Amino acid sequence: MDERRRRFETMALPHLDAAYSLACWLSRSQTDAEDIVQEAMLRAFRAFDGFRGGDVKPWLLAIVRNCWRNAGADVRRRAQTALLDDGDASLASDEPDPEASAMRTSESRRLDEAIALLPEEFREALLLREMEDMSYREIATITGVPIGTVMSRLARARAMLRETWMARNLA
Amino acid sequence: MNCSEMLRTQAFLDGELDDTAAKQAERHIENCKACRAFSASIADLSDMLRKQIPHHRAPDALRRRVGKLLDEAEEAADPTPFRRRNFWMGALSGSGGTALAAGLALFLILPPSAATLAQSVTDAHVRALMNGKTIQVVSSNHHTVKPWFAGRVALSPPVADFQQQGFVLAGGRIDKVAGTQAAVVVYRHGKHEIDLFVWPAGKGALPGENTTQGYHAMFWRGGDLNFAAVSDTDWTELRKFSGLVRAEPE
Lengths: 171, 250
Fold this sequence. Notes:
The complex is a heterodimer of chains A (171) and B (250). With 171 residues, chain A is mainly α. Chain A has nine helices and no strands. Chain B is an alpha+beta fold and 250 residues long. Chain B contains nine helices and seven strands. In chain B, 50% of the residues lie in helices and 20% in strands. The chains are: A mainly alpha (171), B alpha+beta (250). Chains A and B meet through helix 1, helix 2, helix 3, helix 6 and helix 7 of A and helix 1, helix 3, helix 4 and helix 8 of B.
């Protein structure tokens, strides 16, 4: 293994989970997400010489996002309709109380649906912030928009999600 | 309900404001009903998202496939692996070369010495003070500081407030200790700042108590983490502080 590969593995591979998670959220399919991540890791490795220091994670997530945007029209269309093909239904299984666990799972599923209803640019801003703890500047870099736009998208995403969530809970 | 300051309030909650702006925002939120309600709803939502939403882990099969892809890419990118190997074989041939290689390997895997650690932690502390960049997330609320670390560093440092004992949580940042990424929880004690460095424990020994360039540092290990509290405050206070941190359940 050469030095470049070793550097890439120590710097980029720790973010494989984050890359996969983002791809899952964008494509809403674990199968498509795997394809996107493979493509993204390969591109990242090839472009690694051009990486000029700083934090690897936003750089890598930007590549994931580009791969997703370049994905075929069929893949992108699937994401409009599909609910996450969720292998993680056992998510709350470590919960001792099965009833509480079931409730939590159904609640997280409804939340998942509410997120799915957000327009893509709002959804990605919110997920990068809340799931990946990216800063405004990092989100701006990843999504290629000014920081002001990130701020207003986040505010809109939060307001919309809250509205949908409340409406669904009342229904 | 609406307020023209809502984006600033949001930025405050997301830990995006510097010290001065954060204080202004905090004052505004105290006096603005709309922003108070807005803050509460953002905090609820964020809490719910972080608790309820699965963070997908990359499947092992994917991890393996990525490894294989990289192998192939590496081979394709390197047209002369044979010649390069020859060069090293040549350079290291003979018993001298083997001894050299063995010595080199030994040197590379040696953990940083206690002296290196002491110097490195003080350097990081001083560098941050001089740049005025000791804090990347400003907050006196450990519910804000702790999750901030989550996506940024591969460990979860204990974050607590010891306000009653005179050590006020001020925020956090990411820094480096002897080349390893560390979470730094920043506290204020009177006019002094205390940096609590937390990083994964390795094999090397820790320095214990130590004074470098006038800064005191206390090192200890807790579980699989190393801790170092660094400050220009006096020893009594620093010992009191580290006692509080060590008594805190993780």
